[in-house]
Amino acid sequence: MTMLDLSITDLSARLASREISSSDVTDACLARIAGDNGRFNAFITVLADQARADARRADVETAAGRRRGPLHGVPISLKDLIGLEGVPTTAASGVLRHYVPAADATVAARLREAGAIFLGKCNLHEFAFGTTSEDSAFGPVRNPRDPTRSAGGSSGGSAAAVVTGMGFASIGTDTGGSIRIPSAVCGCVGLKPTSGELPCDGIIPLSPTLDHVGPLARTVADAWLLFQVMAGDPNPRPLPVARVPPPSLRLGLLRPYFMDVLEDVVGDRFGIELGRLAKAGIAVADRAVRHASDIATIYLHLQLPEASSYHAPMLEARPDLYTPPVRQRLELGRYVLAEDYARARVGAEVLRREVDAALEGVDALVLPTVPITAQPIGSAALTIDGQAYPVRGLMLRLTQLFDITGHPAISLPCGRPAGSLPVGLQLVGRRGRTGDLLSLAATVEAVMAQQA
Amino acid sequence: VEAWLRAAVEDAERRGLPELKPLLEGMAQSTIALRAADWNDTVPPSREPDDE
Predict the structure, then answer these.
(1) Pairing with A334, which of A24, A220, A221, A352 sits 20 to 30 Å away (CA)?
(2) DSSP class of residue A134?
């Protein structure tokens, strides 16, 4: 294990004791980016000089006994949808190729204040409007486990960066699953907090009522630290990992619809890990969401017109600067009628109540994060049990519900058999109780690690 | 929905976007499902503008 493989929790302890300097670890990250970014295309902008200067300042503060908190001197990255003062923020689009924000997004400002070092801005699916990170003005992100495959999206560059040691974490956004999907198919932890918990100002919107910002990290404890800092606490206490003993936990397994269409490897791996959790004493009970088959319909009628509303002026002015698939979906949204948007809003409330009901009597819901593994770059459809499905629909199938309802959800690596593509296990908690979800997720993570 | 689809396809073609047709047809199926959902029973019936 090298220092680039450490968790933030471990790195932070070594930075505090001055066993490692922020300058050294930042240099190591930048060297990894210089060596590997060409293969994975995870970064659009690398802030080498600024990162080195910030790391030197962090080291001076540490030497003077002025550590700001656990992120002090820790190199991370931001999805290139998140504004950073004086740094191009492209949204991976030709439309914004020359856009330079005048101020940090609120979450970036909080991370900066907590001492985090920004290595650069990560590649994504153009305007976060896609699940593969293939449609980007800067070329596709490639999966670290198999560069012929998609890294998932839309925060694909962020997930690739975290998994390959090009930084210790990344900040992404999630409108239909864009943090959890790439985390699942690349093999890291991805947290979508409760709707509204973290501010999205200074972040280029996709669909304002569905947008969330959150961390991609290597461990649940790291995701907790990043979440707490972005929520406004620059010096959070570590997550109490052992607070929840497995036998006291109850999980609700979402079955109808959610387990109906799964690639074999996903179903097998999820079943094995669920069995391990049960063996550790965690109770698992079946749960259902009555209108689950309407999720995609509701999502489309909310997401498309909201996205089109933001993009209408740019679609009129420079349609040629969009990638064709993203432009077509944005144009599609301009035809959704207001009455159908209103119907979808009612449907969203129905789903919210049904997820609340599914959580009654259990601590969290559990389901796979994505029904399929990373697909070859360029594939638009695949066949499961003799039926053809569009990749985009499958990628969103198990995550978009919780963007609609606002419940916090986290994806954890679901077993790591050597040589196989990553699979994600998703846990969903009560609205406003993201901390409780993370405590539970840390217990689940520990059980899976012990028994792997 | 049928009338909406016809008008939308015509408009897209007029705007030089014939490639939207299959997407609009898929959207129409989704809109039919949305309008058929049983929760619509809870939505107040729409009113004519003269009712205002």
Answers:
(1) A352
(2) -
Q: Report how far apart, in Å, the C-alpha atoms of A292 and of each of A136, A203, A259, A333 are.
A: 31, 30, 11, 22
pTM (predicted TM-score): 0.96
> Which residues on B lie below 8 Å from A343 (Cβ)?
34-35, 37, 40, 43
Q: Give which of B11, B17, B19, B31 to mutate to test A binding, by max A Cβ within 10 Å.
A: B31
CB A80 within 8 A of CB A123: yes
Q: Which chain B residues are within 8 Å of A338, Cβ to Cβ?
A: none
Interface ipTM > 0.95: no
A-proximal residues of B, 1-52, CB under 8 Å: 4, 8, 11-12, 17, 19-20, 23-24, 27, 30-31, 33-35, 37, 39-40, 42-43, 46
Closest CA to A55 of A76, A36, A37: A76
**What is the arithmetic mean of pLDDT over A215-228?**
98
Kindly give the pairing relationship between strand A146-150 and strand A170-174.
Answer: unpaired
Residue partners of A171: CB distance under 8 A and separation at least 6 = A76, A77, A78, A79, A82, A107, A108, A111, A158, A213, A214, A215, A216, A226, A230
| Confidence (pLDDT) at A244 | 67
pLDDT in tens, A357-396: 999 999 999 999 999 999 999 999 999 999 999 999 999 9
Chain B CB within 8 Å of residue A343 CB = yes
Mean pLDDT of chain A: 96
Instruction: State whether A331 and B20 contact (CB < 8 Å).
Output: yes
Substitution target from A335, A336, A352 for chain B, most B beta carbons within 10 A:
A335
Task: Compute CA distances A97 → A8, A64, A302, whole Å.
Answer: 32, 40, 27
The position carrying tokens 């560069």 is A147
Reported confidence tier of residue B48, pLDDT bands at 50, 70, 90: very low
Cβ of B39 within 8 Å of Cβ of A301? The answer is: no
What region does A181 belong to: left with phi over 0, alpha with psi -120 to 50, or beta? alpha
Q: Is A339 on the interface with B (CB under 8 A)?
A: yes
- The predicted structure's pLDDT at residue A242: 56
Structure tokens that stand for A240 in this block: 């109490």
In this structure, are residues A213 and A200 in contact, taking their beta carbons and an 8 Å threshold? yes
